[in-house]
Amino acid sequence: MAEKAAEYHAALDAVLELGYCALTEGANGMDVVVQCLTALENDPHFNAGKGAVFNDQGVVELDASVMDGATLKAGAVAGLQHVKNPAKLARLVMDSTVHVLLMSDGAEAFAKVQGQEFVDNEYFLTPRRKEQYQRWEANKKNGTVGVVVLDREGNVYAGTSTGGMMGKKYGRVGDVPIIGAGTYADNQGAAVSCTGHGEYSIRNNVAFQINARM
Ligand code: GLY
């Protein structure tokens, strides 16, 4: 519907403007990735953070990742149910641990130590998603959010955040927190953030393959 499309374009334009202004002022590219992903997670239009799809138990489980193309450092989180902004936590995994991927309860325990904002799972639920869940539309578009950045120094960065797929199996992890599947950044190639049916991106290592071809 044209009216709905205009609403989505306006939301995307606002985030694009936010990132572009920050980069123009010389902001760090990773700061911009996380700032833009956070804005998208807080916007109920998208399948990330508030407004994310439900799993087969009617609960929201969130995945996110970020990657720095200059250093190949990366951070990711999977299966979060209470952390308001998974992208911020993915960045903390990258910056404050020796690991790349933390999941579910362990990731949330880490979030607590890092002082991240917690919300009830109901915070993420929106009337639109409740309705979709009731209909459980198998062919629904995903609406995962992604941000890729090229900063003034020529470094590239990527980040992705999602609720996954409507009706996914409890515990299912998609491509988004798998570095090389849903997210990849390398100054030698490209910054990539994928959307779509994550199992295909995992099987084909899509983000890395696109980078390698670039
Ligand atoms: N690409 C989002 C997902 O499959 O989880």
How would the blueprint of this fold be written?
Elements: H1 2-24, H2 29-42, E1 62-68, E2 74-80, H3 86-96, E3 101-103, H4 104-113, H5 127-135, E4 145-150, E5 156-162, E6 183-185, E7 191-193, H6 198-204, H7 206-213
Parallel strand pairs: 2-3
Antiparallel strand pairs: 1-2, 1-5, 4-5, 6-7
Helix pairs in contact: 1-2, 2-3
Low-confidence stretches: none
The percent range for strand residues is 15-25%
Shape: globular
Q: Order of helices and strands, N to C?
A: HHEEHEHHEEEEHH
Total beta strands: 7
In round numbers, the mean pLDDT is 95
- Main sheet overview: 5 strands, mixed
Ligands (ions, cofactors included): glycine
| Distance from first to last alpha carbon | 35 Å
Question: Order of strands side by side in the largest beta sheet?
Answer: 3-2-1-5-4
